[in-house]
Amino acid sequence: MAPLIPPTDEELTRRAQAGETGALGLLLARHEASMRAVALSLLGYGPDAEDAVQDAALTALRRIGDVRDPAAVGAWLRAIVRNASRMRLRATRETPGLDGLDHLRLRDDEPSHPERIVEQHAMRDWIWDAMEELPQQLRLVLMLRHFSGITSYQEIADACEVPVGTVRSRLHQARGKLAEVLLSTAAQAHDDASAVTEDSRQEALATLESAIRGSIPGDIAELWPAETELLGTLSRPGERIHPTTAMRQNREKGVTQHLRHVVASRDITIWEMDVTNPPGIASPCPPTLAWLMFRRNRRVQTLRVIFPEPT
């Protein structure tokens, strides 16, 4: 029996460009050592070098379609690591996210070339399946930092009620674990992440419409059971408040919210809103806010309203 000949880089690259996630996983695993060597040569031993390799692997997910010479994909991957490492060396201030993930942020209102690539290659479903494998606290910081408008370390720290240093640590852990899970699940079938997001978007629209009417239909009422608790700046110390109380107060003040973006996983949901205040209101609501929800069996257990910093 003739020995099996492993596929060449060119074959794997063309298969990855055709949407085969397993082929891309094999490519990343094959070149991981050389990618890490580049990072170490520029950044030395430490977390920065590992982060640069992770950044490069995630960037490759969205840019594999850009490779013009599939046989030279190894050099292409090393060049991405080199650029990621140099960016870290040049960085003098905090930047809003990880390159490879920022461009996978799928906006409801902004179709983009990266989004079409993700759709075509099934990368989005692969990434979100991998995200679901992370512990909740690690998944939350990734969702906020790279898929929502809550991007600064301080905003994430406020939303999670932890110090900024903890946010940085969790992001580092989350990116490392995500890279590991991506490689281990590359050849598996993945659920349709867009279906989860669309279901959540419909829930958000129905909730906002119910808030305006002042009555919540049965199917949406199930989303907001009696035990749901409103936390954060809109709640009162020592008093348990249901989200419908805040909805009623907004309706009485004439404040309306308009859904802008949805980020959804199985037990964490983020609804980002634009806010319209009526003319002459005494205490206007900030122009944007986000609903951060933790859920169990679809039902919302807690809701925290976050007010992002003006940009």
Description:
The chain has 311 residues and is α+β, with helices and mostly antiparallel strands. It has two domains: 9-191, no CATH class; 194-306, Roll (Nuclear Transport Factor 2, Chain: A). Helix content is 54%, strand content 12%. The protein contains 13 helices and five strands. Strands 1-5-4-3-2 form a five-stranded mixed β-sheet, with helices on both faces. Helix 3 (47-63) packs across helix 10, helix 8 (136-147) crosses helix 10 (164-184) and helix 9 (153-160) crosses helix 10 (164-184). The chain is elongated.
Q: Give the total of domains.
A: 2
Relative helix content: 40-55%
Radius of gyration: 22 Å
Which residue ranges are poorly predicted, with pLDDT under 50 across at least 5 consecutive positions? Answer: 92-100, 102-121
Order of helices and strands: HHHHHHHHHHHHEHEEEE
Cα distance, first to last residue? 64 Å
Number of helices: 13
* Main beta sheet strand tally, sense and closure: 5 strands, mixed
Strand order of the largest sheet: 1-5-4-3-2
Count of β-strands: 5
Strand content: 5-15%
Shape: elongated
Which structural class do you get from the secondary structure elements? alpha+beta
Mean pLDDT: 80
